[in-house]
Amino acid sequence: MKLSVLIPSYNEEKTIEKIIDKILEQKVNGINGLEIIVVDDGSQDRTREIINSLDKKIGTRLRPIFHEKNSGKGAAIRTAVDNMTGDVCIIQDADLEYDPIDYPLILEPIISGRADCVYGSRFTGSQPKRVLFFWHYLANRFLTMLSNMVTNFNLTDMETCYKAFKCEILKTIPIRCNRFGFEPEITAKIARRGLRLYEVGISYSGRTYDEGKKITWVDGLKAIFVILKYAIIDDSRKSK
């Protein structure tokens, strides 16, 4: 199987090289091919320059794509999905909050044929997690609960970055949200399709806003709208 790692990136000059190095170090049973698709979403720092330098060093395993203006995480993921060529894919933030050391754990249910998609939960499992914002935790729990109410899932962490899919399935799901609304949108569409969703505990090293965290309370309000919207609308398949 070939793994496609999808990295939406915006102003991550301090971490982009480190996260790609970590990805290249991973060994996953059942995976014998790798492509890292980095979509730089109009960065204003040195991220683009660093990606170009890595492209020359790493070669064909790295596939850089550049948005001329910032469009949001969902837009960057949409571009990555359109360009991926693997059998299984995982979404990886460009910061160091999520550790690629968890790839074997997350990908195993798909590789073994038991799952169509897998979420990595920050709120379960024995892996270490950095202690940070209480109100962020509470907001995540609320959004996950609201999502579960309309999808009938029993997820513990709908808002997690670590989402893995069979590529052939993700390619058939339209991604409409350009920003962080991607998370509840894709969850609603997985539910609509009746796909086999698993959840595994992961490690987590969250950032503060001074360290570069980008999501805000406004994105939380937009997520509520997205959850309610896709509770009504079935938009889970691309039209042929």
What does this structure look like?
With 240 residues, the chain is α/β, with parallel strands linked by helices. Strands 3-2-1-4-6-5-7 form a seven-stranded mixed β-sheet, sandwiched between helices. Helix 5 (134-151) runs parallel beside helix 7 and helix 5 (134-151) runs parallel beside helix 8. It has one domain (2-232): Spore Coat Polysaccharide Biosynthesis Protein SpsA, Chain A. The chain is built from eight helices and seven strands; from the N terminus they run E-H-E-H-E-H-E-H-E-H-E-H-H-E-H.
Query: Regions with pLDDT < 50 over 5+ consecutive residues?
Result: none
- The CATH class is identified as Alpha Beta
Radius of gyration: 17 Å
Topology order in helix (H) and strand (E) letters: EHEHEHEHEHEHHEH
Q: Estimate percent helicity.
A: 25-40%
What is the tally of helical segments? 8
Helix vs. strand class: alpha/beta
Number of structurally distinct domains: 1
CATH domain fold name: Spore Coat Polysaccharide Biosynthesis Protein SpsA, Chain A
Spatial order of the strands in the main sheet? 3-2-1-4-6-5-7
